Give the backbone structure.
Amino acid sequence: MDELFASPKGALKDSPLADRMRPQVLDDIVGQDHIVGEGRLLRRAIQADRLSSVIFYGPPGTGKTSLARVIANTTRSVFESLNAVLTGIKDIREVIDRSDERRRLYSRRTILFVDEVHRWNKAQQDALLPWVENGTVILIGATTENPFFEVNRALVSRSRIFQLKSLDSDALLKTALKCLSDTERGYGKWKVSFEEGALEHLVEVANGDARSLLNALELAVETSPSGFANGQPAKHKLKETFEESFLWPPPEGTEIYVSMEAAEESIQRRALLYDKDGDYHYDTISAFIKSVRGSDPDASLYWLAKMVRAGEDPAFIFRRMIILAMEDVGLADPTVISTVISCAEAFDRIGFPEGNFALSEACLCLATAPKSNTTLAYFDALKEVEREDAEVPNHLRDGSRDKEGFGHGEGYIYPHAFREHWAAQQYLPSPLKGRVFYKPSSSGKEALIQEEILKKREIQAAVIFGSEGDSKNEILTWSSSSKGREQWFKRLESGRAKLLLSDRDRIFRQCNIERHHRILIPRANDGLLLWESLRRCPEGLTAALVDTNTIKETLLGFFSNSFSGDECDAPIIQLCNSDASLLPDKEEAKEAFNCTEFDHIILREAFRRQNTGKKNIVEIFSDFAAKAKKLLAKDGGISLLQSPPKMGERISRILKDECKIESSIYEKLNDAENSFFNRANDDTLNINWDASLLGDSFSKAGYIVNMEEINQEEERLISLKDLSIWFDGEKSLWGAFILDALGKEDFNNIKSSLEERTKEGPLLWKYKSILLYAKVKS
């Protein structure tokens, strides 16, 4: 197959101009300085005749075969060539046999040039692979397709890839002028002139393809009448007939004039550079996708028209547009996918040419729609599944099969049992607690979703993150041996969400917060106040203290997944080192937050989760007020909401309003509970304080105090397990006290009545909270 490079002397003048003008040496190659320019690797290898296997990749007419010809002209190795379109395995074996013989007998290398190498099937490419690997042949492959996709991976890994670029206008013009001046291979023997703009038109329409330019130039020059100058017959030469002026070649020195009309006819609109199975197919659909994603309707229509004009399958285009509707528009406008699918169905019914309207409507709908790629959240979840195959939480398991034996499904909250059909329940596996995949965008209709999702997510996080300490601090279950027990009440109802948001808003409403203020949040484990502080003080500081490093990392992870902004926008979260007082001193605050003054200190239910040591509640409040006074800036204040145990719900009230039981038993239980909550505070349980005690503590510390009592109520779902903990006569302090006061029979009757009531669903839970605002006296 060496005829690919054969140029017999007698045939040279009959060869096409593009073939005659092929570069003979490296300096003849134009427009590819990035690979054959001075000092470049490929140039050095060719000049030193030390070429290793290479693959030339680029659009048609950029010089791939010309580079191979240059190598053929300069190498001392034997040069063989094959065209992948015309050859098979037999031809490959013949070349290999000759190459192997040269190598063994004469120690000569063989360079094998394979044009259109991507046209070979896998078997043909595999047949060549071992001989390239052992050095029998040096491969030079040429392809218009991306070799990383279309060429045997093993061949690619053993070759250097050189990408040739489309020629720019300067390189094409240089090629044309060289052709016009070359007396051996081009038109230098004649006086060729062009109407103004005609040569530039050929260069422009060639679109980076030197072969296309030379073919057009050949047609324009050799079909233009000779002996004419500026469109008129030359005075120095007469023709017997007009037809003789078109005979080629004319005598040397003849003037040839190429008009604009001749140039336009010689390079009529070229077939689109588009191969439905090749790179241009993928590049064009990529341009279309990116234009739609970028909300550019004009560019989107252009690339759509190019695909349709090139004969792209409309089914393929609609398939891509359906994917775009889900991937790039998504929930920003969920109706777009219906429009695109309807257009696809309409096209199937009417076909071309009217089907262009369906294509155009779908394209414009996508390009002008608001954009959101939040559906990609699925792939984040998939990565997490692949990284850690976590167990299904017990309350989410199928209770219809293993409820009795293993407790599957126990604790699950049925969302439809509540008014808003939602419960702030943990649905992710425990190792992924607080993990966020879906981040609603603020685009289009998804902006309406964003606020509701973030609100629910914050409430859910508050329930989940804040649950760690609850079991040992709700008074009915607190005891030294109850650590780690399941929290006795379920903070899982939609009513709980409203209550938490209401608490948060009340706390912030008392503070005159500005964007630059510095806020300190002790015991911020649940994050409820943390996120609102970040929103209200974007230019200030949000500092928080939490109980454990796990909570700290979880809250910071929640921030990075749910809030936009960089590290500077994040809250500063530190561990609480002085647990008994909740607050750091000035030196600790300086070290933890690089700040010793705060405009507001805010907290919610912080004293319930308190390791009091030997302090009683008065000492705890006094110590907190004193430390806060040193940390508050001028005009700063404390805003807190707390629910004192003494003002909490009573089982006797539930028994009276929710259960069917004798009034005498209710009255006995009511008296016993009053005694329990009003007994002397000699055990540091701190359960017998109320609003007045809290207010007095801050007043004595030098604060101006405003305080109000708030009636709270919410629906709570009580389980049988909860009741078993409350009515444990040994481990529950409340249970032990009530059992002693009422006796075993009444104690068990009350428990049975509550068990029957809890089977009916959630019950109304009532209690009081104290909302306090304390400001240092001027």
Remarks:
- The first strand starts at residue 54 and ends at 57.
- The CA atoms of residues 645 and 687 lie 5 Å apart.
- The chain is about 45% helix and 15% strand.
- Confidence is low (pLDDT under 50) at residues 7-11, 229-242, 468-494.
